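Example record

The entry below shows one chain as it appears in the dataset: sequence first, then structure tokens.
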Amino acid sequence: MPIAHVNGIEIKYEVHGSGAPLVLAHGYSGSLEMWREQVPGLSSKYRLVIYDTRGHGKSTAPADMHAYSIERDYAGDQLALMDHLGISQSYVGGLSMGGMIAQEFVCQHPERVAALLLFDTGPGGAPRDAAMAARFEQFRAMMATAARTKGMGAVLEMMRANAGAGIGLGAKGQLPDSVRRHLRGMAEMSIDGYLSGARAMQAWRGTMDRLSAITAPTLVVVGERDGLLGPSRAMHAQIAGSRFVLVRDSGHGTNMWRPRAFERATLDFLADVDAGRAVAGEFAV
């Protein structure tokens, strides 16, 4: 697997196919393997770049928790990776935390983004519901304690016991194989990366006050059972001319729950962008 030495760390990445570049960032606690089922389809049309974000997969996981910031580090790593690959402008997207990275990236570097793809993600910022915020913080603290004292296996058991920590993973025994593979992969994740990534998302200022400035054609995709359905709709409402696609019978991680529907929604959107057609609208698949 190729390595990019950027920002004092090693980023592992893969490039597939040719054509207009499409750079995708995976979700929290995942890796570039999250996109494995989409590689053949997406790379048949585009130069697909997938990579392990810092603290994830085979990329470096700094021990210093302050080395993880959505604004500075994650977005900065993607910029450096694109420079490393000689990509001046790209279709840019991401899922969950990767979608946060994509949002921050387009806000900081709009000239580098030809189109924006936001999958199962939200605009960040502090939750408006104080009680919900308190419950989330309590659960996050429990997960951190479990990770440090018992390892990532204990974290997985807590997630299963809490139905995917409220993000629509579903009950035990009802998960697609790809979701199960993702959860098994978490067992090998760096504890420093796991805890620091969560801290980075919590500390992120968010984009709700910046979304209206986005002019790149934008796709917003979310599963109907995803806890981020509401935030996804809010983002769609703020980004003029964006396309919203609801994926039925899907929890968090639409590319894993319904990979072919996800792929079709993505390729249809990019085909319209390539052809210069308007992308606005709301659809369900």
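Notes for this example: The radius of gyration is 17 Å. The mean pLDDT is 91.
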